[in-house]
């Protein structure tokens, strides 16, 4: 099925009114792009990292977008929408723009961005729909990311994989906090970890990670659980991996200390560069010695060890 995207340009005070018009017409999944709100969030440092093109940030007015299925009755729906927008108590009638969107573009557009990628000295990640023959000696992870994060194409993930390659000797127990697709837990298992608990808050990620664990036949080593940070973990482990964000790493560090065996490692990633020193201090305060720092673009990852 194809869809018609209707973008309505509206002043800030009209955003809720236009969303409500879409809702009343049975249009679900309304998208709001409000440059003032985005700028406010950026200024308040609510996001560690953001990527908005200048045309979104500099747009003079917010946009409210709704999606109509193409087919019989579309003209009437658009006429009704126009009528309802004209009746809103706003100084000017909001301007409307339309664009066709093909269903298959939505469903599969992201797939073209995922290609097989070789990571570190011994690892490779292959999306499940791509053909790839690894060079001798590379361990291949086969992943289908679905709606979860982590297909080996983000530096925060690849830096963790490189650390895992360095420290896993075989037989370790580990926890992967915020597992997404399960990529880091599966990496640890393929490198020889004996037991990995992979946790994510998001039930979609948990489902995707479980499928990827099966796909890579590491179900004997990796257990995927839905949970908040370390709330499902009680046993002491040799290694904790967390690729989340700086704020969460800071909160997590004292709890990681509680479940790590003495001399255990903590791989912390997803740290935006401007918060990297603050994270290092918090790691040290929590009793960790930072062994190595990696950086790639705006992102920093630390490998640390529990002292004492
Ligand atoms: C940046 S992704 C990392 C995914 C994967 N580990 C990787 O390295 O590519 C962060 C993941 O952490 C999960 N997450 C965020 N907050 C969490 C929390 N409080 N407890 C557990 N998981 C959390 C998110 O749902 C997301 O899947």
From TrEMBL:
Chain ranges passing through the membrane: none
Keyword Methyltransferase: yes
Subcellular location, principal: cytoplasm
Cell location: Cytoplasm
Catalytic activity field: L-lysyl-[protein] + 3 S-adenosyl-L-methionine = N(6),N(6),N(6)-trimethyl-L-lysyl-[protein] + 3 S-adenosyl-L-homocysteine + 3 H(+)
Example GO molecular function: protein-lysine N-methyltransferase activity
Record's keyword terms, sorted: Cytoplasm, Methyltransferase, Ribonucleoprotein, Ribosomal protein, S-adenosyl-L-methionine, Transferase
Residues that hold S-adenosyl-L-methionine according to the record: 157, 178, 200, 243
Described purpose of this protein according to its UniProt entry: Methylates ribosomal protein L11.
Enzyme Commission number(s): 2.1.1.-
Family stated for the protein in its record: Belongs to the methyltransferase superfamily. PrmA family.
GO cellular component, one term: ribosome
Any Pfam family the entry gives: PrmA
Protein name (record): Ribosomal protein L11 methyltransferase
Family matches, as Gene3D superfamilies: Vaccinia Virus protein VP39
Keyword Zinc: no
GO biological process, one term: methylation
Domain of life: Bacteria
């Amino acid at each position: 099925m194809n869809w018609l995207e209707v973008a309505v340009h509206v002043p800030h005070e009209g955003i809720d009114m236009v969303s409500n018009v879409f809702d009343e017409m049975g249009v679900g999944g309304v998208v709001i792009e409000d440059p003032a709100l985005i700028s406010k969030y950026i200024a308040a440092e609510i996001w560690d990292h953001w990527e908005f093109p200048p045309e979104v940030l500099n747009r003079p007015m917010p946009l409210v977008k709704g999606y109509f299925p193409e087919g019989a009755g579309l003209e009437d729906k658009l006429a009704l929408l126009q009528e309802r927008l004209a009746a809103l108590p706003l100084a000017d009638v909001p301007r409307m723009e339309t664009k066709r969107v093909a269903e298959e573009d939505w469903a599969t557009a992201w797939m073209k961005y995922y290609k097989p990628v070789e990571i570190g000295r011994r690892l490779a990640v292959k999306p499940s729909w791509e053909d790839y023959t690894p060079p001798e000696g590379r361990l291949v992870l086969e992943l289908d990311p679905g709606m979860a994060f982590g297909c080996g194409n983000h530096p925060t993930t690849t830096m963790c994989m490189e650390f895992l390659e360095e420290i896993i000797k075989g037989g370790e127990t580990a926890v992967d906090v915020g597992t997404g697709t399960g990529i880091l837990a599966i990496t640890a298992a393929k490198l020889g970890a004996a037991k990995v608990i992979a946790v994510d808050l998001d039930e979609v990620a948990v489902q995707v990670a479980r499928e990827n664990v099966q796909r890579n036949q590491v179900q004997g080593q990796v257990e995927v659980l839905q949970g908040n940070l370390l709330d499902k973990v009680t046993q002491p482990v040799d290694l904790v991996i967390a690729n989340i964000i700086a704020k969460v790493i800071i909160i997590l560090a004292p709890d990681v200390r509680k479940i790590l065996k003495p001399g255990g490692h903590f791989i912390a990633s997803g740290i935006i560069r401007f918060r990297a020193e603050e994270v290092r201090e918090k790691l040290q305060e929590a009793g960790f010695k930072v062994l190595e720092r990696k950086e790639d673009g705006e992102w920093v990852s630390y490998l640390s060890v529990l002292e004492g």
